[in-house]
Amino acid sequence: METALTRMLDLQYPIIQAPMAGGPTTPELIAAVSNAGGLGSLGAGYLTPDQTREAIKAIKQLTERPFCVNLFVPEQPNGSSSAIAEMNGRLNRYRAELGIDPNPPTPASIETFEEQVQVLLDERVPIVSFTFGIPSLDILHAMQQRGVIVIGTATTVEEGMQLEAAGVDAIVAQGSEAGGHRGTFLTPANDALIGTMALIPQMVDRVTVPVIAAGGIMDGRGLVASLALGASAVQMGTAFLACPESGAHAAYKSKILSSREDSTDITYAFSGKAARGIRNHFMNSMRSYPGTIPAYPVQNTMTRDIRQAAAKANNPAYMSLWAGQGTRLATERGAADVVKQTIEQASALISSMKKAIPKP
Ligand SMILES: Cc1cc2nc3c(=O)[nH]c(=O)nc-3n(C[C@H](O)[C@H](O)[C@H](O)COP(=O)(O)O)c2cc1C
After folding, report:
1. Hey, which CATH number is domain 1-74+111-248+330-360, 3.30.420.10, 3.20.20.70, 1.10.1270.20, 3.40.50.300?
2. Taking residues 57-84, what's their average pLDDT?
3. Beta carbons within 10 angstroms of residue 78's beta carbon
């Protein structure tokens, strides 16, 4: 199971637990995966710099193994005031259904990306991954000068090539099966829905840095397939969401465990950015929205009160239930078991495949 990436990141196994912003990636989940020989990752995209620092300190208390912190490359908030007003009117419908106040003041989104980067540098985080774009060369150089390994996220070969040209050390190739937000940054997200099976070998052929396969990988079969396609590791998100260590809401976990391969869809409705999640009332109802959904992060901020009220009421109909297409394979096992069983299954598969190949 040794690959270019396990050597680069000093891992026992080529398994990365995906960063999952919004609560699932607790210090306990991250440490369990890192201690089991994989790489745990903190999704810090929605955290303040202070919360990021606290989470990193908590992870360091629980593991001495390498771990990763993931940030969102910021985007310019835009959205015309008329589109925002129209959306607010629509969202009041869901607020009424949930029994919460209409027209909440929209909190200004405060940009803290540079401060977060500084926290990661101060705390000497060994591995940093980014999604939604390419960080500035200043940031990339500052990190690499301090020995930080930098990973970028691509959903097309062109994005991968641009990340490599910018100087990242490895690339997550995110297939369309993947749960959560699309990392697409060069084209409209709907033009970049390439399945993992097609994306990985084409990416591997065009970049020289190690490629990490993401999207629909849930067990040893997915790991072996990814390695066969040329990936140096896998990044698994949905497979860890229902673990006891995951901070996902109980109602969300139970939706994951009862979903099928056809339960998810890509939506802009929650955040203004394309993301894959389990279909629910909010997603279905927003399909008929005739106006323009304000782009991320504006829409994300506008739906926050709805998502928070839904979580409080244990009502998954209005929660963002991000998940990939592999949900039938999700289990409630502990995170260390997910790593262990993935490796055991992959090893058994590799040996049986070796036996099946006739000797020359
Ligand atoms: C709940 C959830 C939240 C996610 N949040 C992030 C994130 O903060 N940063 C990121 O780079 N990727 C994020 N992703 C995407 C993962 O990195 C990865 O591409 C995806 O989980 C792989 O597909 P899978 O869920 O089928 O394993 C998220 C995925 C999920 C399911």
Report:
1. 3.20.20.70
2. 93
3. 11
- CA dihedral 205→208→212→215, nearest 10 degrees, is -30
Q: Which one, of 185, 226, 143, 180, lies nearest residue 24 by Cα? A: 180
pLDDT tens-digit readout, 104-152: 987 777 789 999 999 999 999 999 999 999 999 999 999 999 999 999 9
Average confidence score pLDDT of the chain: 97
Mean pLDDT of 44-73: 98
Residue written as token pair 């040794």: 2
So where are the chain's domains?
A: 1-74+111-248+330-360, 77-110+258-328
Ligand 1 close to Cβ of residue 179 (< 6 A)? yes
Q: Is the CB of 17 under 6 A from ligand 1?
A: no
pLDDT of 278 reads: 98
Which residue among 181, 212, 260, 271 has the greatest number of ligand 1 atoms within 8 angstroms of its CB, and so is best to mutate? 181
Q: Is 180 in the pocket of ligand 1 (CB under 6 A)?
A: yes
User: Which candidate, 13, 7, 10, places its Cα nearest to that of 223?
Assistant: 13
- Tell me: the pLDDT tens digits for 219-248? 999 999 999 999 999 999 999 999 999 999
- Beta bridge pairs of residue 266: 276
* CA 62 to ligand 1 center in whole angstroms: 23
- Whether the Cβ atoms of residue 129 and residue 142 lie closer than 8 Å to each other: no
Instruction: Report long-range pairs for 350-353 (Cβ below 8 Å, ≥24 apart).
Output: 350/224, 353/224
Q: For the chain, how many residues are written?
A: 360
DSSP 218-258: -SHHHHHHHHHTT-SEEEESHHHHTSTT--S-HHHHHHHHT
pLDDT score for 360: 72
